[in-house]
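In response to a reviewer's request, we include the raw inputs and outputs for one of the modeled complexes. The two entities were modeled together in a single run.
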Amino acid sequence: MYNSPVLFFESATLTEKLSPKTHFVKAAIICDEAYKEEAQQLQAQLFDTPSATFLFKDTANVRDFIVEQKMGTCFYIAANWDDAAAIFSTAVEEGLSEEELQVKIIGEKRKYIYCMKCFTASEIDTQATHVQCGCGAHLEVGPFYSKVRKGYIGYPFVPKTEGVK
Amino acid sequence: MFTQELDFKTTDLDTFPFPFRSDNYRYSNDLRRLEDTNLVLITPEYELQVRAKRRLLDEQPEVRYQSFPHTMEMQWEFLEMVFEMAVDKYPEHFELIKNGDEWTFKNNILKEEQTFTFGDPSTLPYEPYDFAGRHFHQDFVLMVNRNDNFYLEIGQVSYAALFSAHWNKGMSFDEIHGPVPFVSRNGDNLIDRVRKFLLGINPGEPWTRINWNLMADRWDVNYETMDVWGPERSLITPENAGKLVRLRVEEQKFYRMSRSNAILFVLNTQFLPLEDMQLRQEWFDLMYSVLQDIPEPMAEYKGIAPFLPQSVEYLRRVDEKLKKQAVETQEG
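The model returned the following structure tokens for the whole complex.
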């Protein structure tokens, strides 16, 4: 569905540190093999909670791992942005909700703006407050995200040096 | 090129939904049962406003009309509902002839006739919702009921106030209203209350409320044209505010669709320039009092902060003049 959860800059599922969520009977850890210490640190906090771990070099087989898990499993994901976004989408496609997912991004997060002049989304610096779109429009980075448009709203404005149209 | 060169304003003041009842205004849950449940309304400005609406739709189709492909059943439900309402209320202006699935709709005001197969969108020049909506001056937004919320799945919006059918497509009621400083006098979250209220609306029992704004020489302000109307707001002066600043009143009507269970938002937008407030002294007095008392966050949210002081100053000058005239008449 168009309003299914997506991974974006301020997703509720994003966390700085993976930590066990209560009310789940099992944990499933999906972790980039290059950062397997993330999985190990989480496992150390799980104590008696049963867990399964999937260390990957590429995300090709992650779907099989997800569908094998039982109801009541919480999924913990540690990966770079692109891999995490792909795994997140796969999890949602397989029926998981945001409450069942926790995501730690290794490295930089990505942020996208949706230009209200040319109706396209493009990646921006995560700290930027104003940007210029490829179409030439000057945009103020708004606080609202659209799952359908896949970006934060970009309000068109005229820079002061160009004066009033 | 998108044009703002529209020249209609409400001329029959009896049909203008003046929004103020007291001399100060705060957001409130002012929903009430709709007495006339038929949404079709022919005003003296009908033809002018419908033609303007169609022009806006043609000039900016991506901005003004949005739908999801899966909404087709709901679109036909909407078409049937509004055409039947039109014929029921104004049989002299509208006709609907049904011969099985072969339907003919006649709009005698615009001298238009369209025969189509009900259920087959290829027999219409536009999607069914878009086609039907083009015969009436209101804006129409259909929100689908899911997960105790409403999601905007079809929108035909020509007179927007900080709204965009394109941007808001697919958003929930909460997401659309998320950023607003909507709290009641008691500090309640009004958006949450309104959403819960809408959940309880039954088919055949529509409700209504009135929203208002001021427009600075514009008929609509959407996100797509912020770079145009944003700076223009500061061009308003006390000298030109009477003509250029218009009270924009949005009479909102909410219908529960009986087949899809969606909520149809019907937005009847009417405009009255500040200088016309003098036509009804009571309206002028209320307008002057309310605008003097608008809290800054509300002015910012409504987008009127850059020209509100000039508008108030215009009304103050008129008020002073009217009082002076009254004294002179008394003395004379």
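As requested, we also summarize the result in words. The longest strand of chain B covers residues 245-256. The two ends of chain B are 55 Å apart (CA to CA).
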